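tokens incoming
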């Protein structure tokens, strides 16, 4: 890994995510998106990768985002208001959905439109399950972000699940792949929502550069 954050950045992240956070709104079509008035941090990933658990751990609020054992349950773009300073945006999981093909395409189109056109979007986290590593559908999403020239960071989730050698191999493979993606940051962040590890640095990175 590289680009370790300094104490000031870590403190900025701690202070940001210490703010009150609550559900703001859910959007199912472009017209229902909230006005682009404050910065936004979006979380994308395969269904059941742990987006809700990660948002809960970041904000230290267990019941904020609804985690589910049923893949594809999140079928809208959910906005969480972090102290009036930032929206945390939980995007529908890709790769699985209990819905018609037409609905799946509609959700995918909405998410792509949001990622490409949202003027207040400042950070994008692409979540990868550390037990499985990068899949083709993850590479598709990363390619779309590359083509749209949208910077993003990879966040490995559930890092307490694999054994240390397996996790190290997954991390090495991910960071090697990042060299092929011009919009990706060169390092990945490792997190475990169950063990509450990796979040101080992730908070610092997400807060860095935001106008609060």
């Amino acid at each position: 890994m590289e680009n370790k954050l300094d104490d000031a950045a870590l403190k900025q992240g701690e202070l940001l995510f210490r703010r009150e956070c609550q559900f703001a709104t859910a959007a199912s079509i472009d017209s229902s998106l909230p006005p682009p008035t404050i910065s936004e941090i979006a979380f994308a990933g395969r269904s059941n990768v742990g987006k809700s658990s990660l948002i809960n751990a970041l904000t230290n609020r267990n019941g904020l985002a609804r985690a589910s054992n049923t893949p594809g349950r999140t079928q809208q773009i959910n906005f969480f208001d972090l102290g009036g300073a930032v929206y945390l945006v939980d995007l529908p999981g890709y790769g699985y959905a209990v819905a018609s093909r037409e609905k799946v395409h509609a959700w995918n189109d909405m998410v792509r439109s949001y990622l490409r056109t949202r003027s207040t979007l400042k950070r994008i986290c692409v979540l990868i399950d550390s037990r499985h590593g990068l899949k083709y559908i993850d590479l598709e999403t990363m390619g779309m972000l590359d083509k749209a020239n949208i910077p993003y960071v990879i966040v490995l989730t559930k890092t307490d699940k694999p054994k240390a050698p397996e996790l190290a191999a997954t991390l090495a493979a991910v960071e090697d792949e990042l060299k092929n993606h011009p919009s990706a940051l060169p390092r990945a962040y490792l997190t475990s929502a169950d063990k509450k590890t990796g979040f101080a640095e992730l908070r610092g990175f997400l807060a860095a550069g935001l106008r609060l």
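note: The two ends are 28 Å apart (CA to CA).
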